[in-house]
């Protein structure tokens, strides 16, 4: 166990614990706040795995934008502020499928990688990733840009009843 | 660094997200569970980038960036739909949405 391993185990424990609370808490707003903890812990994992730019983009975009949007939606739909008991359907089918998916994937990874060891790569700084994006991945990058524009226009059309189709 | 550790964390996140998607009734909580799944997928991509020495360097990290952007687009459209649903039905419980056209 190296330092990186210990950090990954600790951050992973935080991420999984916060994830459990996201899917099990009875307060809607608290689920959003636990999602922040989960996303920050996953960003910490990215940092340990030498993916600097991805970690900071995750903090900026997820914690800064996505969670704020989710909390806005919670407020706009007048969600109950206190604890509410009718947030969940019967649990056992979800537990069966979710647990099966998680355990199956974990078993697959464990059988594939055992306790093998790799050295961490050189850090994925903005320079390194920018070079890759604007040489090898420039076409997908442009397509993602067009998709973002389409999603933006779609969201506006959906939320404006006076310009949507009747 | 033992790659099995982040891989198992990612598998746990995906399982938790799948559980949340199937169990939660509130559409916004369901979207939060989808974010958990996407976080797990991103962790797999970044770990694979650190584990496999591919021909194109940093391909996994570039993919992770794309997935983050797609998640942002997804959440924008999905929340617009949820708000529209709330405007029409005054509720966002996904199992109370009538799938048939109303008479």
Topology (SSEs and partners):
The complex is a heterodimer of chains A (166) and B (103).
Chain A: H1 3-24, H2 28-48, H3 52-76, H4 91-113, H5 126-133, H6 138-159
Chain B: H1 4-23, H2 27-51, H3 59-89
At a glance:
The complex is a heterodimer of chains A (166) and B (103). Chain A is mainly α. Chain A contains six helices and no strands.
What does this structure look like?
The complex is a heterodimer of chains A (166) and B (103). Chain A is mostly helical and 166 residues long. Chain A contains 6 helices and no strands. Chain B has one domain (4-96): Helix Hairpins (Orthogonal Bundle), CATH 1.10.287.3510. With 103 residues, chain B is mostly helical. Chain B has 3 helices and no strands. At the A-B interface, helix 1, helix 2, helix 3, helix 4 and helix 5 of A face helix 1, helix 2 and helix 3 of B.
Point out poorly predicted stretches of chain B. Answer: none
- How much helix is in the residues of chain B? over 70%
Biggest β-sheet description of chain B: none
Number of strands of chain B: 0
Oligomer: heterodimer
Shape of chain A: globular
% residues in beta strands of chain B: under 5%
CATH architecture of chain B: Orthogonal Bundle
Structural class of chain A comes to mainly alpha
Q: Average pLDDT of chain B, to the nearest integer?
A: 88
CATH class of chain B: Mainly Alpha
Give the SSE order of chain B as H and E letters.
HHH
Secondary structural class of chain B? mainly alpha
- Give me the count of strands of chain A: 0
- The H-and-E topology of chain A, N to C, reads as HHHHHH
CATH class of the largest domain in chain A: Mainly Alpha
Search tags:
heterodimer; A: 166 residues; mainly alpha; Four Helix Bundle (Hemerythrin (Met), subunit A); globular; B: 103 residues; Helix Hairpins; 3 helices; NADH dehydrogenase (ubiquinone) activity (chain A)
């Amino acid at each position: 166990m190296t330092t990186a391993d210990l950090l990954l185990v600790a951050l992973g424990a935080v991420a999984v614990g916060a994830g459990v609370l996201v899917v099990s808490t009875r307060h809607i707003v608290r689920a959003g706040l636990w999602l922040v903890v989960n996303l920050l812990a996953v960003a910490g994992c990215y940092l340990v795995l030498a993916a600097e730019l991805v970690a900071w983009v995750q903090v900026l975009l997820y914690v800064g934008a996505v969670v704020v949007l989710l909390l806005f939606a919670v407020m706009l739909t007048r969600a109950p502020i206190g604890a509410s008991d009718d947030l969940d359907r019967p649990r056992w089918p979800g537990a069966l499928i979710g647990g099966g998916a998680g355990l199956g994937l974990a078993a697959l990874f464990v059988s594939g990688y055992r306790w093998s060891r790799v050295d961490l790569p050189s850090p994925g700084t903005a320079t390194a990733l920018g070079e890759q994006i604007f040489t090898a991945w420039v076409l997908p990058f442009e397509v993602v840009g067009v998709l973002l524009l389409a999603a933006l226009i779609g969201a506006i059309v959906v939320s404006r009843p006076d310009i949507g189709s009747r | 660094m033992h790659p099995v550790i982040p891989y198992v964390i990612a598998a746990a996140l995906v399982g938790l997200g799948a559980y949340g998607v199937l169990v939660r009734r509130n559409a916004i909580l369901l979207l939060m569970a989808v974010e958990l799944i996407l976080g797990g997928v991103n962790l797999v991509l970044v770990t694979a980038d650190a584990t496999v020495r591919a021909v194109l360097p940093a391909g996994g990290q570039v993919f992770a960036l794309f997935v983050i952007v797609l998640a942002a687009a997804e959440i924008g459209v999905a929340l617009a739909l949820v708000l529209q649903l709330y405007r029409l039905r005054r509720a966002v419980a996904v199992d109370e949405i009538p799938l048939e056209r109303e008479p």
